[in-house]
């Protein structure tokens, strides 16, 4: 059995959670057995039906006062309780901040290695694991900020891993009604020391969430100043995407840090990344190299971003981007 930690957003499963469930189905084909999900917090019937549509046959629902607010250690205790009862071959979580934190706690509790940012299965799992046993799981994961791929061997059960965002396409299957198993795990006082005790509304962020966006429009020094992002922000909105920037932009105070892409910012892996006026230094490339398609707009045909991009337009972003926006609006009527 493969157990998947599912995060929710407004009652439904997050997109990265559905991607993790889809990966769990692929993993289950290798290891055998069904796919189960763990939900902590409210569990409306619509969520159960949604998970069933992605191949989940049983939903473990953790309840109790300990889960009234998020806490990484408390959530890990819930996952550990399911592991002890169900003995899964692997525990999978989305590569979100919470997924990474909870799986790190879990791996430490179980004394097993953890693979973060997994993008696929390696060849040869089930072969000699080099430690006198068989059945080791081989995974391919992103390392060095997505600049390289590494094949990692997990010889001990359960395998604990997170799936990189958008590395897998979430795919539905013909649904079979999923059973629900309610439980209230014991949570030690020490696991409640660090919890979310309050939240405050964030400032309006028109750029969207970089790490989950399927389209990202980036801008760098070529924007020219704090008032040079209007057209790229408009393009991001037209494409239903998010606005991102290079480190030099945030260093100059032109845009907020939460929009930064790179080694010291967000790591993105959208379907399309449009990099406008960005030279493509190694620090920035570390944050965007996992993008499936990259379109660079730059006046310098020898800029690293241009030479590494899938496609490139040599020109001034302040001329090219408005023209793209105008064409999109024209085609949409």
Tell me the Rg in angstroms.
22 Å
Task: Give a count of the beta strands, DSSP E runs of length 2 or more.
Answer: 16
Q: What's the CATH first level of the largest domain?
A: Alpha Beta
Low-confidence stretches: 126-134
Q: Estimate the global geometry from the Cα principal axes.
A: elongated
Mean pLDDT: 91
Kindly list the characteristics that best describe this protein:
333 residues; alpha/beta; Rossmann fold; 2 domains; 9-stranded mixed beta sheet; 5-stranded parallel beta sheet; 9 helices; 25% strand
Compile the SSE list and pairings:
Elements: E1 2-6, E2 8-9, E3 12-13, H1 15-31, E4 35-40, H2 45-52, E5 56-62, H3 72-86, E6 90-94, H4 97-110, E7 114-121, E8 137-143, E9 148-154, E10 159-163, E11 179-183, E12 215-219, H5 230-238, E13 242-245, H6 247-251, E14 272-276, H7 282-288, E15 293-298, H8 304-308, E16 311-314, H9 317-331
Helix pairs in contact: 3-4, 5-9
How do you describe this structure in short?
The chain has helices at 15-31, 45-52, 72-86, 97-110, 230-238, 247-251, 282-288, 304-308, 317-331; strands at residues 2-6, 8-9, 12-13, 35-40, 56-62, 90-94, 114-121, 137-143, 148-154, 159-163, 179-183, 215-219, 242-245, 272-276, 293-298, 311-314.
């Amino acid at each position: 059995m493969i157990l998947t930690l599912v995060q929710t957003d407004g009652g439904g499963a997050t997109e990265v959670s559905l991607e993790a469930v889809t990966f769990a189905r692929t993993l289950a084909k290798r290891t055998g057995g069904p796919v189960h999900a763990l939900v902590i917090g409210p569990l409306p019937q619509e969520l159960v039906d949604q998970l069933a549509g992605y191949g989940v046959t049983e939903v473990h629902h953790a309840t109790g006062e300990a889960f009234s607010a998020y806490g990484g250690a408390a959530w890990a205790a819930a996952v550990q309780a399911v592991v002890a009862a169900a003995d899964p071959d692997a525990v999978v979580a989305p590569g979100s901040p919470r997924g990474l934190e909870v799986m790190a706690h879990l791996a430490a509790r179980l004394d097993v290695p953890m693979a973060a940012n997994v993008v696929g299965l390696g060849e040869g799992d089930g072969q000699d694991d080099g430690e006198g046993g068989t059945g080791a799981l081989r995974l391919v994961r992103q390392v060095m900020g997505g600049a390289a791929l590494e094949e990692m061997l997990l010889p001990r059960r359960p395998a604990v891993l997170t799936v990189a965002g958008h590395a897998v396409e979430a795919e539905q299957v013909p649904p079979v009604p999923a059973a629900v198993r309610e439980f209230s795990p014991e949570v030690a006082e020490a696991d409640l020391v660090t919890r979310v005790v309050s939240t405050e509304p964030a400032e309006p962020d028109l750029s969207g969430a970089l790490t989950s966006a399927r389209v990202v429009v980036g801008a760098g020094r070529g924007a020219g100043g704090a008032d040079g992002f209007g057209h790229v922000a408009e393009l991001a909105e037209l494409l239903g995407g998010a606005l991102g920037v290079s480190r030099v932009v945030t260093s100059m105070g032109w845009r907020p840090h939460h929009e930064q892409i790179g080694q010291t910012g967000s790591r993105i892996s959208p379907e399309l990344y449009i990099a406008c006026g960005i030279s493509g230094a190694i620090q920035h490339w570390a944050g965007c190299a996992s993008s499936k398609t990259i379109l660079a707009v730059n006046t310098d045909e020898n800029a690293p971003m241009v030479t590494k991009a899938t496609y490139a337009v040599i020109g001034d972003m302040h001329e090219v981007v408005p023209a793209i926006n105008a064409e999109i609006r024209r085609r949409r009527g």
